[in-house]
Backbone:
Protein backbone atom coordinates (compact mmCIF):
# COMPACT_ATOMS: atom_id res chain seq x y z
CA UNK A 1 0.00 0.00 0.00
CA UNK A 2 1.20 3.48 -0.85
CA UNK A 3 0.16 6.76 0.76
CA UNK A 4 -0.35 9.45 -1.89
CA UNK A 5 -1.16 13.10 -1.33
CA UNK A 6 -1.57 14.69 -4.75
CA UNK A 7 -3.88 13.95 -7.67
CA UNK A 8 -0.84 13.47 -9.87
CA UNK A 9 0.63 10.79 -7.56
CA UNK A 10 -2.77 9.17 -7.19
CA UNK A 11 -3.36 8.93 -10.95
CA UNK A 12 0.09 7.42 -11.51
CA UNK A 13 -0.95 4.49 -9.30
CA UNK A 14 -4.23 3.69 -11.08
CA UNK A 15 -4.58 0.70 -13.40
CA UNK A 16 -7.58 -1.32 -14.56
CA UNK A 17 -10.92 -1.00 -12.81
CA UNK A 18 -10.63 1.51 -9.97
CA UNK A 19 -12.59 1.24 -6.72
CA UNK A 20 -12.96 4.13 -4.27
CA UNK A 21 -13.87 4.17 -0.58
CA UNK A 22 -14.18 7.79 0.59
CA UNK A 23 -13.73 8.34 4.34
CA UNK A 24 -12.91 11.06 6.84
CA UNK A 25 -10.51 8.76 8.69
CA UNK A 26 -10.66 7.62 12.34
CA UNK A 27 -11.24 4.27 10.69
CA UNK A 28 -13.31 1.57 12.36
CA UNK A 29 -14.65 -1.81 11.35
CA UNK A 30 -17.47 -0.14 9.33
CA UNK A 31 -14.96 1.59 7.05
CA UNK A 32 -12.79 -1.54 6.84
CA UNK A 33 -15.71 -3.70 5.77
CA UNK A 34 -16.43 -1.22 2.94
CA UNK A 35 -12.81 -1.60 1.84
CA UNK A 36 -12.96 -5.40 1.97
CA UNK A 37 -16.12 -5.46 -0.13
CA UNK A 38 -14.73 -2.99 -2.67
CA UNK A 39 -11.50 -5.08 -2.89
CA UNK A 40 -13.52 -7.83 -4.60
CA UNK A 41 -14.88 -5.42 -7.24
CA UNK A 42 -11.81 -3.66 -8.66
CA UNK A 43 -8.17 -3.94 -9.72
CA UNK A 44 -6.87 -0.81 -7.97
CA UNK A 45 -8.47 -0.05 -4.63
CA UNK A 46 -8.20 3.52 -3.35
CA UNK A 47 -9.36 4.65 0.08
CA UNK A 48 -9.37 8.36 0.77
CA UNK A 49 -8.95 10.05 4.13
CA UNK A 50 -9.98 13.68 4.07
CA UNK A 51 -11.84 15.58 6.79
CA UNK A 52 -13.88 17.76 4.47
CA UNK A 53 -14.44 21.20 6.02
CA UNK A 54 -17.22 22.20 3.60
CA UNK A 55 -19.59 19.60 5.03
CA UNK A 56 -19.25 20.88 8.61
CA UNK A 57 -21.43 23.73 9.87
CA UNK A 58 -19.91 26.66 11.81
CA UNK A 59 -20.93 25.16 15.19
CA UNK A 60 -20.03 21.56 14.39
CA UNK A 61 -17.09 19.40 15.43
CA UNK A 62 -14.60 20.01 12.57
CA UNK A 63 -11.79 20.98 14.96
CA UNK A 64 -12.29 18.07 17.33
CA UNK A 65 -13.01 15.45 14.63
CA UNK A 66 -10.59 12.59 15.45
CA UNK A 67 -7.45 12.48 13.25
CA UNK A 68 -5.05 9.48 13.33
CA UNK A 69 -3.32 9.02 9.98
CA UNK A 70 -0.64 6.53 11.06
CA UNK A 71 -3.16 4.19 12.67
CA UNK A 72 -5.59 4.64 9.76
CA UNK A 73 -2.84 3.66 7.31
CA UNK A 74 -2.15 0.44 9.25
CA UNK A 75 -5.85 -0.44 9.44
CA UNK A 76 -6.52 0.34 5.78
CA UNK A 77 -3.47 -1.65 4.66
CA UNK A 78 -4.81 -4.73 6.47
CA UNK A 79 -7.82 -4.77 4.10
CA UNK A 80 -5.60 -4.94 0.99
CA UNK A 81 -6.04 -1.41 -0.40
CA UNK A 82 -3.47 -0.27 -2.97
CA UNK A 83 -3.50 3.48 -2.39
CA UNK A 84 -4.39 5.61 0.60
CA UNK A 85 -5.20 9.07 -0.72
CA UNK A 86 -4.62 11.71 1.98
CA UNK A 87 -4.83 15.05 0.16
CA UNK A 88 -4.18 18.43 1.75
CA UNK A 89 -6.90 21.06 1.98
CA UNK A 90 -5.21 22.99 -0.85
CA UNK A 91 -5.13 19.91 -3.08
CA UNK A 92 -8.90 19.46 -2.74
CA UNK A 93 -9.90 23.14 -2.63
CA UNK A 94 -7.44 25.23 -4.67
CA UNK A 95 -9.57 28.38 -4.47
CA UNK A 96 -12.68 27.06 -6.22
CA UNK A 97 -15.32 29.28 -7.75
CA UNK A 98 -17.72 26.36 -8.31
CA UNK A 99 -19.51 23.90 -6.02
CA UNK A 100 -22.43 21.47 -6.14
CA UNK A 101 -25.84 22.46 -4.78
CA UNK A 102 -28.31 19.78 -3.67
CA UNK A 103 -31.99 20.76 -3.87
CA UNK A 104 -35.08 19.23 -2.13
CA UNK A 105 -33.26 16.04 -1.23
CA UNK A 106 -31.13 18.12 1.15
CA UNK A 107 -34.02 20.12 2.57
CA UNK A 108 -35.15 17.59 5.18
CA UNK A 109 -33.72 15.54 8.05
CA UNK A 110 -29.87 15.71 8.06
CA UNK A 111 -30.04 18.45 5.45
CA UNK A 112 -32.44 20.53 7.57
CA UNK A 113 -30.53 20.04 10.83
CA UNK A 114 -27.18 20.63 9.08
CA UNK A 115 -27.74 23.37 6.46
CA UNK A 116 -25.19 23.16 3.65
CA UNK A 117 -23.95 19.73 4.77
CA UNK A 118 -24.98 17.89 1.61
CA UNK A 119 -23.65 20.62 -0.67
CA UNK A 120 -20.26 19.99 0.96
CA UNK A 121 -20.65 16.21 0.70
CA UNK A 122 -21.73 16.29 -2.97
CA UNK A 123 -18.93 18.69 -3.87
CA UNK A 124 -16.17 16.68 -2.23
CA UNK A 125 -17.49 13.34 -3.48
CA UNK A 126 -17.64 14.66 -7.06
CA UNK A 127 -14.06 15.87 -6.67
CA UNK A 128 -12.91 12.49 -5.26
CA UNK A 129 -14.70 10.64 -8.08
CA UNK A 130 -12.91 12.75 -10.69
CA UNK A 131 -9.55 12.75 -8.91
CA UNK A 132 -9.56 8.94 -8.71
CA UNK A 133 -11.44 8.37 -11.99
CA UNK A 134 -13.11 5.49 -10.15
CA UNK A 135 -15.37 2.91 -11.79
CA UNK A 136 -16.99 1.76 -8.55
CA UNK A 137 -17.47 3.50 -5.21
CA UNK A 138 -18.90 2.17 -1.98
CA UNK A 139 -20.75 3.92 0.84
CA UNK A 140 -22.34 2.83 4.12
CA UNK A 141 -26.06 2.45 4.70
CA UNK A 142 -25.45 4.19 8.02
CA UNK A 143 -25.52 7.49 6.08
CA UNK A 144 -28.63 6.63 4.08
CA UNK A 145 -29.57 10.16 3.06
CA UNK A 146 -25.97 10.68 1.92
CA UNK A 147 -26.34 7.66 -0.35
CA UNK A 148 -29.52 9.17 -1.83
CA UNK A 149 -27.63 12.45 -2.43
CA UNK A 150 -24.69 10.67 -4.08
CA UNK A 151 -27.04 8.61 -6.25
CA UNK A 152 -28.74 11.85 -7.33
CA UNK A 153 -25.33 13.43 -7.98
CA UNK A 154 -24.30 10.52 -10.23
CA UNK A 155 -27.61 10.75 -12.09
CA UNK A 156 -27.47 14.53 -12.52
CA UNK A 157 -23.94 14.50 -13.96
CA UNK A 158 -24.14 11.19 -15.89
CA UNK A 159 -21.28 9.74 -13.84
CA UNK A 160 -20.36 6.26 -15.14
CA UNK A 161 -19.73 4.86 -11.66
CA UNK A 162 -21.26 1.81 -9.99
CA UNK A 163 -22.48 2.92 -6.57
CA UNK A 164 -22.72 0.27 -3.88
CA UNK A 165 -24.42 0.62 -0.52
CA UNK A 166 -22.91 -1.55 2.23
CA UNK A 167 -24.94 -2.59 5.31
CA UNK A 168 -24.32 -0.81 8.62
CA UNK A 169 -21.76 -2.49 10.87
CA UNK A 170 -22.77 -2.49 14.55
CA UNK A 171 -21.35 -3.13 18.01
CA UNK A 172 -22.64 -6.31 19.67
CA UNK A 173 -25.38 -4.29 21.45
CA UNK A 174 -26.59 -2.82 18.16
CA UNK A 175 -24.97 0.63 18.28
CA UNK A 176 -23.87 1.58 14.75
CA UNK A 177 -20.09 2.05 14.59
CA UNK A 178 -19.18 5.71 14.18
CA UNK A 179 -15.99 7.75 14.53
CA UNK A 180 -18.03 9.98 16.87
CA UNK A 181 -18.80 7.18 19.38
CA UNK A 182 -15.48 7.98 21.11
CA UNK A 183 -17.09 11.20 22.35
CA UNK A 184 -19.72 9.29 24.39
CA UNK A 185 -19.15 9.14 28.16
CA UNK A 186 -19.47 5.71 29.80
CA UNK A 187 -23.00 6.57 30.91
CA UNK A 188 -24.00 7.86 27.46
CA UNK A 189 -22.52 4.74 25.86
CA UNK A 190 -24.87 2.66 28.00
CA UNK A 191 -27.87 4.68 26.84
CA UNK A 192 -26.76 4.82 23.19
CA UNK A 193 -27.87 1.28 22.39
CA UNK A 194 -31.45 2.54 22.75
CA UNK A 195 -31.24 4.25 19.37
CA UNK A 196 -30.92 1.06 17.31
CA UNK A 197 -33.10 -0.87 19.76
CA UNK A 198 -35.97 1.54 19.10
CA UNK A 199 -35.40 1.34 15.34
CA UNK A 200 -35.52 -2.47 15.42
CA UNK A 201 -38.63 -2.53 17.64
CA UNK A 202 -40.42 0.07 15.50
CA UNK A 203 -39.52 -1.86 12.35
CA UNK A 204 -40.95 -5.08 13.77
CA UNK A 205 -44.13 -3.29 14.86
CA UNK A 206 -44.61 -1.73 11.42
CA UNK A 207 -44.12 -5.12 9.78
CA UNK A 208 -46.78 -6.51 12.15
CA UNK A 209 -49.22 -3.84 10.91
CA UNK A 210 -49.20 -1.28 13.75
CA UNK A 211 -50.16 2.33 12.99
CA UNK A 212 -47.15 4.23 11.63
CA UNK A 213 -47.92 7.42 13.55
CA UNK A 214 -48.33 5.54 16.84
CA UNK A 215 -45.11 3.57 16.35
CA UNK A 216 -43.14 6.74 15.54
CA UNK A 217 -44.58 8.64 18.50
CA UNK A 218 -43.80 5.76 20.89
CA UNK A 219 -40.19 5.56 19.65
CA UNK A 220 -39.67 9.31 20.07
CA UNK A 221 -41.13 9.13 23.60
CA UNK A 222 -38.97 6.15 24.54
CA UNK A 223 -35.80 7.87 23.36
CA UNK A 224 -36.72 11.11 25.11
CA UNK A 225 -37.43 9.27 28.36
CA UNK A 226 -33.94 7.68 28.50
CA UNK A 227 -32.16 10.97 27.84
CA UNK A 228 -31.92 11.42 24.07
CA UNK A 229 -32.80 14.74 22.45
CA UNK A 230 -34.43 13.52 19.26
CA UNK A 231 -33.86 15.57 16.09
CA UNK A 232 -36.08 13.24 14.07
CA UNK A 233 -37.46 9.69 14.02
CA UNK A 234 -39.48 9.12 10.89
CA UNK A 235 -40.47 6.78 8.08
CA UNK A 236 -39.22 7.95 4.67
CA UNK A 237 -39.05 6.99 1.04
CA UNK A 238 -35.34 6.18 0.58
CA UNK A 239 -34.99 7.74 -2.88
CA UNK A 240 -36.66 11.11 -2.18
CA UNK A 241 -36.20 11.34 1.59
CA UNK A 242 -39.75 12.58 1.93
CA UNK A 243 -41.91 11.25 4.76
CA UNK A 244 -44.17 8.33 3.91
CA UNK A 245 -46.79 6.43 5.88
CA UNK A 246 -46.38 3.25 3.80
CA UNK A 247 -43.99 0.84 5.50
CA UNK A 248 -43.03 -1.01 2.32
CA UNK A 249 -39.73 -2.06 0.71
CA UNK A 250 -38.06 1.16 -0.44
CA UNK A 251 -38.95 2.88 2.82
CA UNK A 252 -36.75 3.23 5.89
CA UNK A 253 -36.98 4.28 9.50
CA UNK A 254 -34.41 7.00 10.07
CA UNK A 255 -33.35 8.76 13.23
CA UNK A 256 -30.90 11.28 14.61
CA UNK A 257 -30.63 12.07 18.30
CA UNK A 258 -28.23 13.74 20.67
CA UNK A 259 -26.77 12.41 23.90
CA UNK A 260 -25.05 15.31 25.60
CA UNK A 261 -22.90 16.90 22.90
CA UNK A 262 -22.71 13.78 20.71
CA UNK A 263 -25.09 13.42 17.80
CA UNK A 264 -25.87 9.88 16.60
CA UNK A 265 -27.70 8.84 13.43
CA UNK A 266 -29.03 5.45 12.41
CA UNK A 267 -31.64 3.82 10.20
CA UNK A 268 -33.21 0.50 9.22
CA UNK A 269 -34.63 -0.47 5.85
CA UNK A 270 -38.17 -1.88 5.82
P1 LIG B 1 -17.14 8.80 7.33
O1 LIG B 1 -15.69 8.61 7.55
O2 LIG B 1 -17.94 8.87 8.57
O3 LIG B 1 -17.43 9.89 6.34
O4 LIG B 1 -17.65 7.47 6.62
C1 LIG B 1 -17.04 6.99 5.45
C2 LIG B 1 -17.90 5.90 4.88
O5 LIG B 1 -18.04 4.85 5.84
C3 LIG B 1 -19.32 6.38 4.54
O6 LIG B 1 -19.74 5.77 3.34
C4 LIG B 1 -20.12 5.88 5.72
O7 LIG B 1 -21.48 5.66 5.41
C5 LIG B 1 -19.42 4.56 6.00
N1 LIG B 1 -19.69 4.12 7.37
C6 LIG B 1 -19.54 4.85 8.51
N2 LIG B 1 -19.93 4.12 9.58
C7 LIG B 1 -20.34 2.92 9.09
C8 LIG B 1 -20.86 1.73 9.69
N3 LIG B 1 -21.05 1.62 11.01
N4 LIG B 1 -21.17 0.69 8.88
C9 LIG B 1 -20.99 0.78 7.53
N5 LIG B 1 -20.50 1.86 6.91
C10 LIG B 1 -20.18 2.91 7.68
Residues:
Amino acid sequence: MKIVRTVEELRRGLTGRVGLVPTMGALHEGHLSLMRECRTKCDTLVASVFVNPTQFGPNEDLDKYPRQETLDAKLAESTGIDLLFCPSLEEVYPGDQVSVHVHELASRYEGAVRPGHYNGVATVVLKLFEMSRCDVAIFGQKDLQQFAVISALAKAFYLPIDLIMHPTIRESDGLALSSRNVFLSAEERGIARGLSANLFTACAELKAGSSVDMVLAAARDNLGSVGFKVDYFDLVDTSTFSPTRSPIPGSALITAARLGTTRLIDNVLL
User: Anything to note?
Assistant: The first strand starts at residue 2 and ends at 4. Strands lie at 2-4, 18-23, 44-49, 83-85, 136-140, 162-166, 229-237, 251-259, 262-269. The longest helix spans residues 186-207. DSSP finds nine helices and nine strands in the chain.
